[in-house]
């Protein structure tokens, strides 16, 4: 994946040299957090072909079988107070809808707040976390993304088979994971460039893609 991903990204992409690809990791998020604490620059991207301890929100597990999905974490270092990043998860979801549509022709919906879905079946999830300085400014942000690409129904655990899907299942085509990963990196970089100035545009698009708006929900 690493070589093809480099080939698919423009030579002037500022994160191109910061990609790290691993055969297996417990969690790309955990490694990204460690590297961020060690001073890794913005745009450091961690990809794993397999995760043994992938996580979603609230400590839930994220099923991450080998060579079936994209398991990615990204380090950002926005220079702002944490209060200005309340929309970060929404911004990432918007960017991922753009990426998946560019790579596959399918635009997912968003299940509030952080799931990518198609016809109410989960295609992927997003996990964001901030580390703060004592004055409340952002030290770094970690963005974790998992997208199901090539799974078949029986690749999912039985308890989630009726709730999960992959891009290949819903499009009926084979999915090039490197192509999707490259589109993700381009969309995330574009998002980062306007993260603080383009909030209104991001949230407007998020609302348009969000299948939860207008629905009854339980909290």
Describe, in plain words, how this protein is organized in 3D:
The radius of gyration is 16 Å and the shape is globular. It has a 7-stranded mixed beta sheet with strand order 1-2-3-7-6-5-4, with helices on both faces. Helix content is 31%, strand content 21%. With 219 residues, the protein is of the alpha+beta class. The protein has helices spanning 2-8, 28-37, 88-104, 167-171, 177-193, 199-209, and strands at residues 19-22, 45-48, 69-76, 109-111, 115-118, 121-132, 138-148. The longest helix is centred in the middle third of the chain and has 17 residues, at 88-104. It has 6 helices and 7 strands. The mean pLDDT is 92. Strand 4 (109-111) and strand 5 form a beta hairpin.
Layout of strands and helices, then pairs:
Elements: H1 2-8, E1 19-22, H2 28-37, E2 45-48, E3 69-76, H3 88-104, E4 109-111, E5 115-118, E6 121-132, E7 138-148, H4 167-171, H5 177-193, H6 199-209
Parallel strand pairs: 1-2
Antiparallel strand pairs: 2-3, 3-7, 4-5, 5-6, 6-7
Helix pairs in contact: 1-5, 3-5, 3-6
Strand order of the largest sheet: 1-2-3-7-6-5-4
Overall mean confidence score, pLDDT: 92
Proportion in β-strands: 15-25%
What is the H/E string?
A: HEHEEHEEEEHHH
Class per helix and strand makeup: alpha+beta
Please report the distance between the alpha carbons of the first and last residues.
40 Å
Provide the low-confidence segments as ranges: none
Task: Round the Cα radius of gyration to an integer and report it.
Answer: 16 Å
Please state the overall shape, judged from the principal axes of the Cα atoms. globular
E-strand count: 7
Number of helices: 6
